[in-house]
């Protein structure tokens, strides 16, 4: 979930606070409703697409489960409008390696959704990516802020469309577990540790950590680092202009160790956390009534998709608060998936055009667990007040943001299972007292990947 580019993606702290507020107001709307659209959604005139009867397209992404199912509904609408046949191709991380194998075999997908900025840069450097066409560019110019457009550009040329965004600075909690323990949502890291102590003492482990998926651990670190060290050092570390042996990294890891070092805080203890994959980290937090496996789970807005696999209801049983402030301000880290054409075909460009339109984003927004950086998306398309306000905060933040640090790094360091930052932080979860050893490992891997 990565370039070597300008510092980007820190949503305004005030905007996040509004997004995570527990008392949220509904967004109304007016106008003519689309068939089957939620109350308040307005009819769209529809983006112009060419007829592609008989054309077959393949779209690759690392999405699985409900996320894949919901995106397939978007592809079905594209098929309906154009006459093309579109096949979803499940990809594996690192997606650059997956695509390289496909391309070497002479069978690249027409479009790929890349979960790292670094993967986009690699695709361009390898001469796989095609620049966006004029129709897709027109949708981008109409619907996207300059910051989100620049994330999809390399060397001044537009190659990608950021179809999906993520606010990765949210902690979701089981309302019944909090109520049973008499705990309120914390606003500072110190309050979070105190709340975790109270929750665990009440018999419910505080946090469900998806330690089997290294990318979630990078998000833990990045939120702490951004709040504690500040945005300037965050940008420098993202570019490897300062070393991972820097004292600021030591401080962030030490802070993270205050949580990871308490086995009683973690669902299943340390071994349980290391064996827990992301989907389970969410579902086990929202099953079991007021005695779930854990009271909280950290991750982005997309957690809502996995909550949807339980009986819990977002906004009632499952609530959310902003990642607590470690330093002067609470952090907000964002990520996203960029759609890139890998074939110079009419169909690939038409799909990019569709994905850059509000039409496509609104289909997936209605399913929940999805956030679009497209400012033309009707807020009423989001299924509940929590997701609606998270989306509004993203749009209102404009270009005032920081992008996920590991997503900016070369994939060998920031985006490969069992290697680089993912592996180093999994080892740190297993032994949070080894701060110096973790720093040394991170620096050695970063120096190799960045080539400096």
UniProtKB/TrEMBL annotation:
Keywords: Transport
UniProt keyword annotation of Transport present: yes
Organism superkingdom: Bacteria
InterPro entries recorded: Bact_solute-bd_prot1, SBP
SUPFAM superfamilies assigned: Periplasmic binding protein-like II
Family annotation (Pfam families): SBP_bac_1 (PF01547)
PANTHER family: ARABINOSE-BINDING PROTEIN-RELATED, OSMOPROTECTIVE COMPOUNDS-BINDING PROTEIN GGTB
Similarity comment: Belongs to the bacterial solute-binding protein 1 family.
Protein name: Sugar ABC transporter substrate-binding protein
Native source organism of the sequence: Streptomyces amritsarensis
């Amino acid at each position: 979930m990565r370039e070597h580019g300008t510092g980007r993606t820190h949503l305004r702290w005030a905007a996040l606070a509004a997004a995570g507020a527990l008392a949220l107001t509904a967004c109304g709307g007016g106008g003519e409703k689309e068939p089957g659209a939620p109350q308040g959604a307005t009819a769209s005139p529809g983006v112009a697409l060419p007829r592609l009867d008989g054309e077959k397209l393949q779209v690759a992404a690392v999405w699985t489960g409900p996320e894949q199912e919901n995106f397939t509904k978007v592809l079905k609408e594209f098929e309906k409008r154009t006459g093309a046949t579109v096949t979803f191709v499940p990809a594996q991380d690192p997606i650059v390696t997956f695509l390289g194998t496909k391309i070497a075999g002479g069978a690249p997908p027409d479009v790929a959704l890349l979960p790292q900025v670094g993967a986009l840069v690699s695709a361009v450097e390898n001469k796989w990516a095609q620049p966006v066409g004029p129709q897709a560019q027109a949708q981008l110019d109409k619907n996207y802020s300059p910051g989100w457009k620049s994330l999809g550009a390399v060397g001044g040329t537009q190659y990608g469309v950021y179809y999906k965004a993520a606010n990765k600075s949210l902690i979701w909690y089981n309302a019944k577990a909090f109520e049973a323990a008499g705990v309120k949502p914390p606003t500072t890291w110190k309050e979070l540790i105190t709340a975790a102590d109270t929750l665990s003492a009440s018999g419910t482990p505080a946090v469900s950590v998806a330690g089997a998926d290294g990318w979630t651990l990078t998000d833990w670190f990045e939120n702490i680092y951004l709040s504690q060290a500040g945005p300037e050092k965050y940008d420098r570390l993202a570019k490897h202009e300062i070393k991972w042996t820097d004292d600021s990294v030591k401080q962030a890891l030490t802070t993270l160790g205050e949580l990871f070092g308490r086995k009683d805080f973690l669902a299943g203890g340390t071994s349980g956390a290391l064996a827990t994959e992301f989907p389970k980290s969410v579902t086990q937090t929202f099953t079991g009534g007021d005695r779930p496996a854990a009271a909280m789970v950290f991750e982005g807005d997309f957690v809502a998709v996995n909550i949807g696999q339980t009986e819990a209801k977002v906004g009632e049983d499952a609530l959310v608060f902003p990642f607590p402030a470690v330093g002067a301000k609470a952090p907000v880290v964002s990520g996203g998936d960029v759609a890139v054409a890998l074939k110079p075909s009419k169909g690939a460009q038409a799909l990019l055009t569709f994905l850059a339109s509000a039409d496509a984003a609104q289909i997936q927004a209605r399913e929940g667990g999805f956030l679009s950086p497209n400012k033309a998306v009707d807020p009423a398309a989001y299924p509940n007040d929590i997701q609606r306000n998270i989306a509004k905060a993203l749009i209102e933040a404009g270009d005032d943001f920081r992008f996920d640090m590991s997503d900016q790094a070369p994939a060998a360091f920031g985006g490969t299972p069992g290697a680089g930052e993912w592996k180093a932080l999994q080892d740190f979860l297993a032994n949070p007292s080894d701060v110096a050893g973790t720093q040394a490992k991170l620096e050695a891997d970063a120096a190799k990947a960045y080539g400096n």
